[in-house]
Amino acid sequence: MEDIYISKKRRQPEEIDFVFLDEPAPPQIPQDEEPPKRKKKKKHRFLKFIATVLIIAFLFGSAFIFVFAAMSGYTRDDLEANEYVSSFELESSPFVSNILLLGVDGSADSSSRSDSMILVSVDFAHMKIKLTSFLRDSWVEIPSKGKKAKLNSACSSGGPQLVVDTIEYNFGVDIDHYVMVDFDMFTQIIDSLGGVTVEVTKKEAKFINSTTRQKVESGENVTLNGDEALVYCRIRKLDSDYMRTYRQRKVISALINQAKKAGISALIETMNNVFPLIKTDMSALEITGLAYKAGIGIVAFDIEQNRVPIDEHMEVGTKNGQWVEVVDIDAAKEYLQDYIYTNKIKIEEE
Q1: What is the DSSP code (8-state) at residue 218?
Q2: E strands, 165-229, where?
Q3: Which residues in 58-85 are b (16+ Cβ under 10 Å) and which e?
Q4: Distances from the Cα of 62 to the Cα of 56, 67, 180, 274, 299, angstroms
Q5: Left, alpha or beta for 53 (phi > 0: left; psi -120 to 50: alpha)?
């Protein structure tokens, strides 16, 4: 086609065809009209486009209805506005949703210390899911008391509300929702998903076996049941609290990856089993909306994990006879905000 185009451009004058007056002029087609065949094609394309849109809308609409129908039996406890810090002082973004996962060492209906605090940040701007563990021994100000204490004591003093208020007050990030489970719930959730597959070292396998009397093998892809996964997440004496939070994030990451691969029917069945076990401030419509977003985008998101404070922003010591991490709040706040809302922080494996 390129050669033909060039030859036409270079045609010599004597090659031009002349139209004589006594020859009938070829029929002219008005510029604002198209041949019937072309119009038919255009019509078919338009109808095909409309049909495609309707099919997609039906499929996603059906999934939305099914997910909404699965929302039943869970315990809902709304969050109040933080009375200790203004919303204008909190870093937020319309492209980031922050959900705080709380694991407590007693019943979710009682006032227990939070053994695990992981902020799940769904970052639509950078297509990432960012998991941030808050170290439970962090020495921070508990705003309701007006004095400093360990971060995990906030839950026993004021439940999920005070944990959210405390993290927002100290670290300046807006938390949209929370989800809380106790240890019994955690094991049931893992079992309802068919276990969780993670890397297990020889030392970790030995610890799990001595605690649960199971026969867990070490390896890169080891499937743990609920009881085994709980022990795995709570290992602390084997190394450190930092590695304990790392193991917790590994389990959450594995669960997210498993959910990505599951079909809609399997997810709905899991939700029916899991939701009666949790406590959250989210309404059924909000949960469904989050699941809907996950279905159309989050499956392609990368998962990153981190902790706050990092080593550079804390010193280990004792306060009131307690072993704590004394936090450089200003540095930790800036670091956390950069990690959640930007792409500046480069994460290294622990």
Answers
A1: P
A2: 177-182, 196-200, 219-224
A3: eeeeebbebbbebbeebeeeebeebeeb
A4: 10, 9, 29, 21, 19
A5: alpha
Res 283: pLDDT = 82
Angstrom distance (rounded) from CA 97 to CA 177: 8
| Closest to 75 (Cα-Cα) out of 294, 274, 227 | 274
Buried b (16+ CB within 10 A) or exposed e, 115-143: bbbbbbbbbeeeebbbbbbbbbbbbbbbb
Which among 197, 177, 198 has a CA at the least distance from the CA of 101? 177
Tokens of 309: 């404070």
What predicted TM-score, i.e. pTM, was given to this entire model? 0.74
3-state helix, strand, coil in the chain (%, to 5): 45, 20, 30
DSSP-assigned letters across all residues of 279-308: EES--HHHHHHHHHHHHHTGGG-EEEEEEE
Between 236 and 231, whose confidence is greater?
231
Which residues on adjacent β-strands are paired with residue 310?
Answer: none
Whole-number average pLDDT of the chain: 78
For the chain, the structural domain boundaries read 36-70, 75-341
For 75-341, CATH number out of 2.60.120.920, 3.10.310.40, 3.40.630.190, 3.90.650.10 equals 3.40.630.190
Count Cβ atoms within 10 A of the Cβ of residue 1 and give its class: 0-12 exposed, 13-18 middle, 19 or more buried.
exposed
How far apart (Å, rounded) are the C-alpha atoms in residues 45 and 39? 10
User: What gap in Å lies between CA 258 and CA 267, rounded to an integer?
Assistant: 10
C-alpha 22 chain-centroid distance: 78
3-state secondary structure of 179: strand
Non-local CB neighbours of 102 within 8 Å, separated by 6+ positions: 114, 116, 117, 155, 160, 163, 178, 179, 180, 181
Q: CA-CA distances (angstroms) from residue 124 to 144, 295, 301?
A: 33, 13, 9
Least confident span in 32-36, 91-95, 193-197, 228-232: 32-36
Q: Rounded to whole angstroms, how far apart are CA atoms 255 and 345?
A: 24
Q: Is the dihedral of CA 72, 191, 160, 340 positive or negative?
A: negative
Which of 91, 161, 152, 170 minimizes the C-alpha distance to 123?
A: 91
